[in-house]
Amino acid sequence: MANLSIGFEPSVCSMDPHHHHRSPEYNSLLLAGPRLGPLKQAHARLVVSGHARSLPLTTKLATLAVAAGAASYAGLLAASHPAPDSFLFCSLTRAAARRGLPAAALAFYRCLLAAALPFSSFAFTAAAKACADLSALRAGMGVHAHAVLLGFGSDRFVQTALVVLYSKCGKLDVARKLFDGIRDRSVVAWNAMISGYEQNGLAGWAIEVYREMQVAGEAPDSATFVATLSACAQAGALDLGREVERLIVSERMEMNVVLGAALVNMYARCGLVNKAREWFDVLQERNVVTWTSMIAGYGMHGHGGEAVKLFDLMRQQGPLPNDVTFVAVLSACAHAGLVSEGRDAFASMKSVYGLVPRAEHYCSMVDMYGRAGLLDDAMQFIHHSIPGEPGPEVWTAMLGACKMHKNFSLGVEVAQRLIAIEPENPSHHVLLSNIYALSGKMNHVEKVRNTMIKRRLKKPIGYSLIEIAGVAHLFRMGEKSHPKTPEIYQYLEKLIHRITDAGYAPETDSVLHELEEEEREFALRYHGEKLAVAFGLMMTSGCTAPIRIIKNLRICGDCHLAIKYMSAVENREIIVRDMHRFHHFKAGKCSCQEYW
């Protein structure tokens, strides 16, 4: 989550009972600043001059020690004072939370509790921030209860800190209730709510809160734009992403490294990889996130060569790659069939960078071998390179490869392993059913289908999204709830006639095999992707801009084939982002080169 500490708490100076004229001793502490060596010398002078028991000086010394990162030293100073007061522990709690020492902040908060001293608003805001940084929900709920008990429940600074806490811990219903109850919301509260939704995969809700913020007239800051751009990237909301970019440019907002990375990521994930690269090239400062977002962007669009080239450049002149960078590189190699480059990158992870591969890295390697048709290499890798028992994601990648290359006997074996690991996952049963059907074992298809009925397992529902004039339209298979349903179906019928004349024939293997041939063709005809494309073409006729679709699952073989023909007969570029990658359909061809 973006740094949301600014605006968390009221001014402390106005509440400081120790605020007094500055003595020479006090000035010597200010001169020492947050540096441990000079602070210890200043402490020695206080002891020698007989001021060691002065509470204001002890408070200042201990607070500066925390700012220097020496929380345990500050704790000793506080504990050695004969009469510590509330302000001392409140100041230490706040200083530790600000310095990024959340465990120490909670320890000072507990000292305040144990000493039964009065609390202040800024002690609760600091304690709640510390719990948020630690994602310590139970401790945070304790802080919340205590704040309510002592009458701070409606304090807007405390409420804002609690919104951040619950958002970070994924308790969005609680966060939203608190957020709605804040009378005078600061930008921090808005940011926490946008960020909370985005980081928990609810990009649509995040965008809605950003729109509410605009209506409320609250001025966004850099953190607002970072969270909103991340939500646009997740939802594929290109229009809003462009709107945010215009605001950043027109308001001459300082282009910090986090904001720059968010812009690169938004354009890469919304399908404009060249625009992402433009931003990447003009940024003064790039961190590992910026480089990784750009590499991942190339990978998603099937530009594996560009991804590897940029990764090589990163190794020469960029920051050290992290484990997420390697997921992006390996995935790019898998999607472009760059096996030797992928092998080299995987080997360098351990040998050059000392990184320990995770499930995602193993999965990408299996996916890479599998897509390239090297099924024996993939199985060898699973048995000899993965420590312990491979997880379901590894076997899922292997199963996809078996299906792609029609190795049905190995596919059945892999699917049965998957079902043994995750018996309640309907996707595994569906894949096994399709493998049986493709190999002509219809009696086994029936058995799998009966098992799914008995266990009440349903395959995930696919949907496709298209945004027209800033409004998102969602289509499922056979969707009938759209207000323009009759026109969409009529348009799609004409379109299917035209592509059939051009040579399209439905790939009925793409549908679950319990349907009869005729029913399968009917089901394919009204897949969400086709309805979304038809709607997009219908609503933008005469326009030359690409049609952009987002699909929550992997695009099926038949829709992939149909959309290639649609791009040719309509002379329009159609861009589909599915759960794995981007497909750029143009003039009857797809950028994935049948490799998805």
From TrEMBL:
**Pfam families per record:** DYW_deaminase (PF14432), E_motif (PF20431), PPR (PF01535), PPR_2 (PF13041)
Q: Which residues form the DYW domain?
A: 503-596
Entry-linked PROSITE patterns: PPR (PS51375)
What superkingdom does the record give?
Eukaryota
Q: A single GO BP annotation from the record?
A: RNA modification
Question: InterPro entries recorded for this chain?
Answer: DYW_dom, E_motif, PPR_At4g14850-like_plant, PPR_rpt, TPR-like_helical_dom_sf
Q: What are the ranges of the PPR repeats?
A: 186-220, 287-321
Q: Which GO terms describe its molecular function?
A: RNA binding; zinc ion binding
Keyword tags: Repeat, Transit peptide
Q: Which PANTHER family match?
A: DYW DOMAIN-CONTAINING PROTEIN (PTHR47926:SF355), PENTATRICOPEPTIDE REPEAT-CONTAINING PROTEIN (PTHR47926)
Q: What is this protein called?
A: DYW domain-containing protein
Q: Which source organism?
A: Miscanthus lutarioriparius
